[in-house]
């Protein structure tokens, strides 16, 4: 252990820690600058770049926003000259991107979904995540909000593993499937990015940029399965058998995201406009003629084989039917469980807020030093490994002091575990731990 690195409440320890923090910022600045020199091709200039708002943060925590950039060359120059900790670009297209928010003149915005693996509550997180006191630099039990030293400044450090990444991929696949099957989005209009830290961003291009916040809210409600169980209760009643009139699948079951916005339709038989897409058929005839009878959570709902069939039915009814295809009868409890399993765990506020800024693709994330990188194709998601494909810092060795780190893997190499010790690490691994706040550069580079 380095003398004085642990916080002992004396001037020597404070001075040593402050010096190592300065060394760490200097090292990250070098690593990020080297990346932007070598990997300019990775940086993506957005469509209609002059209509976007840009911003970036420095390693000292300051944030610069409301910037306008003319072209890709100016963007690359900004990265190399300023070496930002994080770089952001608006999802929105503005008439005047440098003006205050209320004066920018919103024209449209990319439709973007955020999947945060941490919100999925991975079961493996207790094996590799760390809760570290920012005062005494000692680990804190994950069930406690206070360190033994009395401080409440506890930092939750996420160290994703392959299992965590797989959880995020599962949500991406569910989201892409619902966008394609239920909303008619072409796969070519879906672009998936690893966020650079602990999740994925899914962009939907094309005409969907014209959706307003209200329409985006309806899309979010649909994907989250909000109101589906209640709509099924109202529609089917206690013991109702469906009879489908006509042949084939209804055109109404596979509609674009803009169906209600463009047509101005209102479905009086549902809780909201989103519910209209739940059923997936034009005509539903109930054998008892009562579509509004109530049912309890444990009541039986009869769903016909035509919907249970794997190739039958669009929307939530078809999706639930296929999920429960092995059951002749299903209870409301099993339907609710199916909705929970089939819904997509996205951050609703991210999608609804048209003014939100997102990390620029191809730039580094200061929480990990990994890059926000795209999947070449949606079909590549299973083979994509962000702990390799997004780890692009160089491998020259540096000396670091690691406070506390579990075993972790980057670029196919395993490191750790470490507890209050000096180690030599390749720069990509050292930068990763420093960005996580659990290591410091030992000297100036």
UniProtKB/TrEMBL annotation:
A GO term from the CC aspect: primosome complex
Membrane-crossing residue ranges in chain numbering: none
UniProt-annotated stretches for the region Disordered: 243-271
Alphabetical list of Pfam families matching this protein: DNA_primase_S (PF01896)
InterPro entries xrefs: DNA_primase_S, DNA_primase_ssu_PriS
Enzyme class: transferase
Family: Belongs to the eukaryotic-type primase small subunit family.
Complex and partners: Heterodimer of a small subunit (PriS) and a large subunit (PriL).
Protein known as: DNA primase small subunit PriS
Native source species: Candidatus Nitrosocaldus cavascurensis
